[in-house]
C-alpha cells in the first residue's frame, strides 16, 4: 500500500508472537516556492500535488490561479515539492515566510510572529447551506469506508468533503493538518473551490479541532466542520467569529454543535 510498509514486531500477550505490522511512512517533505523552501513537514508521501496546492491556499500563500506548476523531486533525505507561483504570490511569500521543520504537520510552529499565527480572515460567505441531524450522522459513519490507510495502520488522520451525494473526496496523512491540506488541494484540483461561489458541503475530520484547522477551513470558504474529536475553546470562538458551524464529538448516533446552530436543519427539509 502506498504510504505504508510492513514492519517486523514482537507481540507480548499470553504468548510472545513474532509477526508483521503495516505502519505508515513519515518522511521529510520540503515545500519550496519559486526556489525558496517555505516549510519542511513530516508527512505521508502520497497526494503531494494536492498537499502543495492545499498548503498554498490554506496558508494564504497563493491562490489556485497563481500556481503555475508543481514538480516533485527526490532529495537525499526526503522529497522536495517545488511550487512555481506568480510574482504577486511571490511578494506575499516574503511577508509570510516560514522557515521551519514541522513535526508531523505542526500547524503553527515556525511562524515568524503572533500576527501571522493569528492572522485576520474574512468570515465565510453566507450560502444558506444546512444539514439535518440524520445526514450529519451519516457523514460521520461514511468515514469508515474512506480510511484505507488507517484501516491498515491505525495510525493516520483523515479529512473528507461531504456533499448531499456522500463523501466526494478524502485524504489521509500522519499529520492532521497535512490531511486537511491534502483535502483542500484535492478540492481545488477537482474544481470544487471557486472564488465566485462558496463550496456546498462540510469538512469531516477524524482529529480534534484547533485554531489552525479552523483557519484552514475558513480559507476554503467552507461553511461547516464535522469532527470526531473535541475542539479547543479558542477554536470554537474563532469558528463562531468566522461564521463556521462547528460540530464535534460526532458519532453515527450523536454529535455536539458549538457554533451557528442555524445550519442544523429540520429532518424534513434542508438546503442544498
Can you give a write-up of this model?
The strands form three sheets. A six-stranded mixed beta sheet has the order 9-8-10-11-12-13. Helix 1 (48-58) packs across helix 6 (176-189) and helix 6 runs parallel beside helix 7 (211-220). It is 27% helix and 32% strand. It is of the alpha/beta class and 272 residues long. The chain is built from eight helices and 13 strands. The model is unreliable at 98-104 (pLDDT under 50). It folds into two domains: 27-117, Ubiquitin-like (UB roll), CATH 3.10.20; 133-263, 3-Layer(aba) Sandwich (Cytidine Deaminase, domain 2). It starts with a strand and ends in a 15-residue tail after the last strand.
**What is the terminal-to-terminal distance?**
36 Å
Number of strand elements: 13
Helix content: 25-40%
Q: Give Rg in angstroms.
A: 19 Å
Number of domains: 2
Helices and strands, in N-to-C order?
A: EEEEHEEHEHHHEEHEHEHEE
Fold-level CATH name of the largest domain:
Cytidine Deaminase, domain 2
What number is the mean pLDDT? 90
Amino acid at each position: 500500500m502506498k504510504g505504508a510498509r510492513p514492519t517486523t514486531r514482537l507481540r507480548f500477550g499470553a504468548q510472545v508472537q513474532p509477526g508483521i505490522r503495516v505502519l505508515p511512512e513519515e518522511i521529510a517533505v520540503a515545500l519550496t516556492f519559486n526556489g525558496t523552501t517555505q516549510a519542511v513537514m513530516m508527512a505521508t508521501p502520497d497526494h503531494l500535488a494536492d498537499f502543495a496546492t492545499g498548503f498554498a491556499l490554506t496558508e494564504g500563500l497563493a491562490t489556485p490561479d497563481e500556481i503555475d506548476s508543481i514538480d516533485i523531486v527526490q532529495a537525499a533525505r526526503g522529497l522536495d515539492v517545488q511550487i512555481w507561483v506568480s510574482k504577486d504570490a511571490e511578494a506575499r511569500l516574503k511577508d509570510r515566510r516560514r522557515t521551519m521543520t514541522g513535526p508531523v504537520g505542526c500547524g503553527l510552529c515556525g511562524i515568524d510572529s503572533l500576527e501571522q499565527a493569528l492572522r485576520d480572515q474574512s468570515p465565510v460567505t453566507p450560502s444558506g447551506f444546512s444539514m439535518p441531524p440524520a445526514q450529519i450522522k451519516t457523514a460521520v459513519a461514511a468515514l469508515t469506508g474512506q480510511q484505507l490507510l488507517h484501516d491498515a495502520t491505525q495510525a493516520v488522520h483523515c479529512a473528507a468533503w461531504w456533499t448531499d451525494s456522500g463523501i466526494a473526496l478524502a485524504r489521509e496523512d500522519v499529520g492532521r493538518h497535512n490531511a486537511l491540506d491534502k483535502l483542500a488541494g484535492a478540492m481545488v484540483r477537482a474544481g470544487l473551490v471557486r472564488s465566485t461561489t462558496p463550496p456546498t458541503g462540510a469538512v469531516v475530520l477524524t482529529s480534534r479541532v484547533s485554531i489552525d484547522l479552523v483557519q484552514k477551513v475558513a480559507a476554503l470558504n467552507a461553511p461547516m466542520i464535522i469532527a470526531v474529536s473535541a475542539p479547543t475553546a479558542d477554536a470554537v470562538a474563532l469558528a463562531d467569529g468566522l461564521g463556521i458551524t462547528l460540530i464535534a464529538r460526532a458519532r453515527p448516533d450523536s454529535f455536539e454543535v458549538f457554533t451557528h446552530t442555524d445550519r442544523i436543519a429540520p429532518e424534513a427539509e434542508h438546503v442544498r
